[in-house]
Structure formats: C-alpha cells, structure tokens
Amino acid sequence: xxxxPKCAYCGKExxxxxxxxxxxxxxxxxxxxxxxxxxxxxxxxxxxxxxxxCKPCNNGPLSQLDDYARVLYETxxxxxxxxxVEFEYDYIGxxxxxxxxxxxxxxxxxxxxxxxxxxxPYMLGExxxxxxxxxxxxxxxxxxxxxxxxENVVIEPRDHRCGKMFLKDIPSFKSxxxxxxxxxxxxxxxIMFLDAPxxxxxxxxxxxxxxxxxxxxxxxxxxVTIQPTRDYLEMxxxxxxxxxxxxxxxxxxxxxxxxxxxxxxxxxx
Length: 269
Ligand SMILES: [Zn+2]
Hints:
Number of helices: 10
Radius of gyration: 19 Å
Largest sheet: 6 strands, mixed
Helix content: 25-40%
Order of helices and strands: EHEEEHHEHHHEEEEEEHEEEHHH
Shape: globular
Distance between the termini: 41 Å
Structural class: alpha+beta
Number of strands: 14
Bound molecules: zinc ion
C-alpha cells in the first residue's frame, strides 16, 4: 500500500487542499486569480494550492489564522489606500498568518522552505514567542494615475500575490538571508529572515531601503501610520516588463470592467 504523504506542519500522515490565499479571499475577489503570464503574453487563471497539509492542521490552527486575516481584510486590506492610513494589528496573529501564507507559497513555488522550518511551532500556535531573527515590514501602495493609450487611466492595486524578494546588493540587506513579500491590494508585507538579530538603527535602514514609506511592525507598537510613496505601476513594472500593454489590456478587460471570461474560454485560446 502506498504511504500517505506527511503534513508539512505537524509531520503526521494526511493531506488536504489548502489555498495559498484563503478561500474566502478568493471568493471575494474572483478576478484576482487571473494572472499575467509572461511566457504566454496574456492573462490567464492561476489557482495556487498546496496539498501537503493534514486536515487537523488545515481546519484547526491554520484556519483560525485565516479567520483573523479576514478581520484585517474587512477592516483594512479591502480598501484601496490613497492617502495616509493607520493600521492596527495583533502582532502574533498577523505574523503567524504571514509566515503561514509565505511557507505555503514557498512550497507551492518549489523554492526552499528551510527558513520556515524552525517557525512551524509558532505558526501552529504551540509556541507564541515571536521569532527575534525574523522582521516584518509594511508598506502601502497608492493607485497609478496617468496616461495610457491616449487616455487618463487609474490603475488600482487589485491583486494578491506572494513570493521571494529580489534583494538589491546594498549594505542594509547584507544581514538579510532571505526576503519574502505578501501583497494584498494596497498592502505590501515584507518578511526578512536575518542570520542574527541586529539593532533598531539597522532595522530602520532595511525599512528605508525597501521604500521611504515602509515601516517595521513590532509587537510593542501594534499600530502604524503610513503615507504611501509608491504607486501600483511601479510595483508591477519589474514583473510585467516589456509586456506592459498586454498587461494593461488584460487589467482593463478583467479587473476594471469586471468581465472575467469563463475559465474554459481562456484555456481554449
Ligand atoms: Zn498537520
């Protein structure tokens, strides 16, 4: 008999389907699963799931984290940020969720998930001491407003994605072993794994090198105020690159006009 796969969290046998971003978020934002595919040069559906999570972990501690993220979504993330915003958070609840999403995404993208292994008890809520060598940052992104195709366009940050950061070769990032990001509409979270803890000044430089408006989230503060300095197109350009027109076309058709085609329609093309 074939052995059942082991859960990435508790190591016990079992499997179930876990979305990288929670199911309730995907249902609220059905067009967001349409991603720009660079190779194909068009927008197509992209369902991100992992299957190496057992039911007790998935339906227990991990689903409780999704419940807390839902509160944050309703209160903050669902609103497009245009000016200064105040964000209040429960540090442990938020950072456990960010790590969980990031850990799932690392496995789904088949990149190394080593940085997360020691944090599994924290994600599961078995150890509630926040990790000292992992930093969390937040920046908010405002919509792009400008010209495209002879028209004035406004492109709101409407997508959710996560992945590994490309860390520029600059001094403040030298102490960072790995950087990951999670974007939900206007909210851009960054997770930085350090080799050893640093000091406040070093952390401040890391934040400033991510962006002038980026701030570090701390267990002590539980609230931050941010004035956005970057717009959505600045964030998308490195990803979209030369295919900007195709991206904007897809964005207008699927997101602005909210006319998502049927999946079968997209696949048959
Ligand atoms: Zn498990």
